[in-house]
Amino acid sequence: MKIGIIGSGDVGRTLASGFIKYGHEVMLGSRDITQEKVQQWLSGGGKNASLGNFTDAAVFGEVVILATPWSGTKNAVDLAGASNFMGKTVIDVTNPLDFSGGVPPKLAVGMTDSAGEMVQNWLPGANVVKAFNIVGSSHMINPQFPEGKPDMFICGNDQKSKETVKSFLDDFGWQTIDLGNIEMSRLLEPLALVWIVYGFKTNTWAHAFKLLRK
Ligand SMILES: NC(=O)c1ccc[n+]([C@@H]2O[C@H](COP(=O)([O-])OP(=O)(O)OC[C@H]3O[C@@H](n4cnc5c(N)ncnc54)[C@H](OP(=O)(O)O)[C@@H]3O)[C@@H](O)[C@H]2O)c1
Q1: What is the pLDDT of residue 138?
Q2: What is the pLDDT of residues 27-51, one digit of tens each?
Q3: With bands split at pLDDT 50, 70 and 90, how would you rate the model's confidence at 147?
Q4: Rounded Cα distance, 69 and 82, in Å
Q5: Is the CB of 17 under 6 A from ligand 1?
Q6: Residue in 5, 6, 8, 11 to alter for ligand 1 test, most ligand atoms within 8 A of Cβ
Q7: Fewest Cβ atoms closer than 10 Å to its Cβ: which of 2, 73, 124, 128?
Q8: Residue 48: which of 3, 15, 81 has the closest Cα?
Q9: What 3-state DSSP class applies to 124?
């Protein structure tokens, strides 16, 4: 598939390389494609890798990934142009983190609303799926844990889009647990904070979630 990625941070570049690895065509979207990290990604990306601005990436993608800091996400959506997401699966990786009080961060929104729902409201014609937000970027592709495959919780309103995301997660080495509609982002974003707070408390960053079942 054609994957457009909005944001060239650790998450954007990691997912970009992961999608290339599994045979997809990726356009990494950046406000400044001359950045060294962006150019480096392009030079290692092969024939299926390309660069563009946020609008180019949103237009290019059959699936579009939002990988921007929460504080810049509305701006990123505006720069990309909401109409360019129409009818597409949009994977929302964002966490609404507030670092104003230092680390660990707090949630900027929660309980009665979530970043996932806000993104869905900004992009009413798109099918937003919250995914990849509950683990650090270095474990997003081919996570390796002694206890086996970790679980990726996802949510979103459109079943077909969630199945598309599940198929990516299958390739990347995750078990997928679908929690329901996009409102379940109210659970997944605090769950990311569990991951983050545990990381700061122990200064270890090699953990992921697994739901134990009988
Ligand atoms: N880092 C992780 O391990 C991790 C794990 C799970 C979820 N998340 C969430 O995923 C998102 C991306 O994480 P990240 O660590 O990759 O973020 P990041 O490095 O802080 O930012 C990602 C990219 O967003 C773009 N950006 C920054 N400020 C912007 C603004 N004001 N307006 C528009 N675009 C802006 C920049 O891309 P350009 O300079 O190319 O325009 C930047 O490289 C965040 O919401 C984060 O909470 C992160």
Answers
A1: 98
A2: 999 999 999 999 999 999 999 999 9
A3: very high
A4: 18
A5: no
A6: 11
A7: 124
A8: 3
A9: coil
Rg (CA), the chain: 16
Residue 75 CB less than 6 A away from ligand 1: yes
pLDDT at 51: 99
Closest protein CA for atom 35 of ligand 1:
72
Report the length, in residues, of the chain: 214
**What's the CA gap between 119 and 129, in Å, rounded?**
10
Read off the DSSP letter of residue 149: P
> In angstroms, what is the span from residue 50 Cα to ligand 1's centroid?
19
Residue with tokens 């949510």: 155
For residue 67 and ligand 1, the question of a CB distance below 6 A is answered with yes
Centre of ligand 1 to C-alpha 68, Å, is: 3
214 CA to middle of ligand 1, Å?
38
Cβ of residue 32 lying under 6 Å from some atom of ligand 1: yes
Q: In this predicted structure, what is the pLDDT of residue 47? A: 98
Q: Which fold has domain 2-202?
A: Rossmann fold (3.40.50)
Residue with tokens 């990436």: 57
Signed CA dihedral, 50, 69, 129, 211: sign only: positive
Instruction: State which H helix or E strand residue 49 sits in.
Output: strand 49-52
Spatial neighbors of 141 by CB under 8 A, at least 6 apart, are 14, 15, 17, 18, 21, 172, 173
